Amino acid sequence: MKRIAVLSLLVFAITKIFGQTNIDSLKPDIKVVEHISFYDNDLLSNEFHADRRQVLREKMPDSSVALVFAYPVQNRSNDVDFEYHQNPNLYYLTGLIEPHALLLIFKEKQDFDSIKTDEIIFVQPRDSSREIWDGKRLGAEGVKSKLDILHAYENYIFADFLIDFSRFNHIFSDLPSGDFTDDKRNRGDLASLVKHFHIKIDTLQNKLDRHFLREVFADLREIKQPEELVLLRKAIDITCDAQKELMRALLPGMKEYQAEAIIEYIFKNNGAEYPGFPSIVGGGENSCILHYTSNRKTLTWDDMLVVDIGAEYHGYSADVTRTLAVDGEFSEEQKTIYNIVLEAQQAGINVCKKGNKFWQPGDEARRVVSQRLLKLGIISKEKQSRQYFMHGTSHYLGLDVHDVGLYGNLKPGSIITVEPGIYIPKNSPCDPKWWNIGVRIEDDILITEGRPEILSDCVPKTIEEIEALMKEESLFNKMDQKSE
Ligand code: GLY
Ligand code: MN
């Protein structure tokens, strides 16, 4: 660390004295002892990322440059940070999962003294004293050899990097939002990369466009490439396994967090790095809270349990919801509400077809819910269904659980969720026999040239199927997880 700080100071001093110079002379002579080795052999390939960079380049207009920054490191408290999450756009283009990086893509090849290239990446340097604490880094050499991005440099070089942005007609940026710390001793951290970008484009604000890349990434990421589909299917299969194991293991007396623990054990044990979002495991009154994540209640025999979960595998997140009767047998009221949601979901899935509007599954599902609730006397006008079904049914799925996309017509290769729900909290203006019933059913749907493919149909969904699976034994039942 100190060595690098001293070297970068030296570089800075030399530059100040002799003016800006070429890239190679800016590089301190850091000996790279070893490269990080990846432990997984099913990551997205370098060819995938190179292809995505090329497709982005093709979408850019003449004489343009795109800058994609890493996401900031988020501090949790004092000297503890949250687990790092890369900007999905930068991951999509490079596979890099380290912070303090900046990728530049040029429409046309550019001359920089000794090199001619249409892409350059700046990354955090190797630093043996930091790597002891935070883990191995790729460094510029590792990015070249492991990620196959040939023009890679240490991030502190960007400050003095001679690039004349006035030569471009368009400057497109994907800049992190929010506040992030500026380590004053580090000329290459994210804050410095952003600061020096602004210095370099000082008088060129009229060329800066922050919207273009948002649109382009929505367009690109909406359609999944075959390699992405492999990872998404894996994330979904792991999530289905977790749902099934919980169905076997669930018993009255368990805590919501114990149900969550079973789910996340299955995630981790199958190689998923994280849950793609905080697991929603809500029983009884909590089944009526849409994004309930505290998961502390003791489950009772008459509770409905909403289990809305998704494993994240190599960046790609699943999102699958099932609703269970905690004692393994749905009451008449629970069955009635459950089957309305199931019928609504099927109506939504039926219209997940190429060319249909993104919102059509939601409209179909709402029509079913409105008509059925009216017939049961739970509402007196169809439009009151919003009181009990207060959300849309669909979002794209991919590198983000609520993934980017254009939200126009459905296209083959995109994956959307269909997740209607009915939530009737206590004291709702209807017969109390319906109170505290919350039901959501969610599947992940691949839009194809023909019929929709339900990627998450590996987990039971009808009441009969769920009740049958809940009768099976689970290994977790041997653990001390029920208090009766
Ligand atoms: N899985 C949570 C949501 O879709 O909002
Ligand atoms: Mn969802």
Attribute tags:
484 residues; alpha+beta; Creatine Amidinohydrolase, Chain A, domain 1; three-stranded antiparallel beta sheet; 13 helices; 19 strands; disordered N terminus; binds glycine; binds manganese (II) ion
Description:
The protein has 484 residues and is an alpha+beta fold. The chain has two domains: 46-220, Creatine Amidinohydrolase, Chain A, domain 1 (3-Layer(aba) Sandwich); 224-483, Alpha-Beta Complex (Creatine Amidinohydrolase). Helix content is 33%, strand content 17%. It contains 13 helices and 19 strands. It has helices spanning 2-18, 23-26, 46-59, 88-94, 128-134, 139-147, 190-200, 212-222, 226-249, 256-269, 332-350, 360-376, 463-470, and strands at residues 64-69, 75-77, 80-81, 102-112, 115-123, 152-154, 170-174, 208-209, 274-275, 280-283, 304-309, 311-313, 316-317, 320-325, 415-418, 421-424, 437-440, 443-446, 453-454. The strands form six sheets. Strands 6-5-4-1-7-8 form a six-stranded mixed beta sheet, with helices on both faces. A hairpin with a 2-residue loop joins strand 12 and strand 13 (316-317). Helix 3 crosses helix 4 (88-94) and helix 9 crosses helix 13 (463-470). The radius of gyration is 26 Å and the shape is elongated. The model is unreliable at 1-22 and 27-36 (pLDDT under 50). The structure holds glycine and manganese (II) ion.
